[in-house]
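Lab notebook, bench 4. Still working through the backlog of constructs that have no structural model yet. Next entry is a single chain of 300 residues. Request: give me the structure tokens for it.
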Amino acid sequence: MVEHPRQARIKYPVFKMPKASISDLLAQVKDLPTAEKVKAFVKDAGEMKEAKGFEAIITRPNNRVAAMLSKRYEIVQHKDAFSPLLKTVNLFSPDIRGQVMQDDDGKRAYLFVSLPDKFSFKAGDGHELTFGFSAVNSYDGTTGVHIGAFGYRVVCGNGMIMKKMLGAWSFQHIKGVEGRLKQILKGLELNLATVSERIEQAREMQIEAQFAEAYAVKTTGRYTATDIMKIYEGNEKSLWGFYNAFTHIFSEATSNPFRRLTQLAKAERILTEPKAVIQEGKEFNEYLIEVAEIKERNKK
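Model written out:
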């Protein structure tokens, strides 16, 4: 009987990627696990019978079960998902920063690419920001070929997930993906002006420390909020400083990589909805004060 294996913990990298040539990354992609379909069986009244309409997806060469899916499911091999992307980036520059990764079962693979200098700029605080994209492909039916943009603050190594400002795209099939990526890269270059504007807006907007802390407590929990505020104390006192404190903590976190990427994506809201973030921080601060007063009265 074929069953789903326990979800493997993904070993996401921090955003400090090594220099790599396109040819090096293509070689790494070529070595990623492949997948194939085999007959799947289920136990029925004590007997093993073929699962009608389903097949098991097996990763090679480790021979592990990735999933049991409909026979209509089309496998996209990791190398077929990523190779066209790298060949497209090669049109911009053959030498980039990048990394190829996979989970423990090989059922998910990841490509991280930091783009050439034309996709970077200096923010108003004088620190360089560079940008790139990540791609993911799976054999377990959880995602098609997914591409998302990210930013990287060179001075402190902060990763910045910017799906709203720079975009995120999913493709069920890889046909024509080269042309799509060319459009994505052109759009990414144009959208950097939007990111720059958002950053300058955030640098001009102040957020009181108690409101910033309350927002951090609400979105990350009290323990992590304490760490965020320690970083914020050394940053400029603006939404941009708060944003960088937020992303710094989750760029460095390693104990729960899923939570890290989720929180980095949530942090983007500080830049895209600054007034709402300040208001939520204010309201939650009032709530925390009220709770503290109730506890104090109950002690008496």
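Notes after review: The CA atoms of residues 250 and 263 lie 7 Å apart. The longest strand covers residues 47-60. Flag for follow-up if needed.
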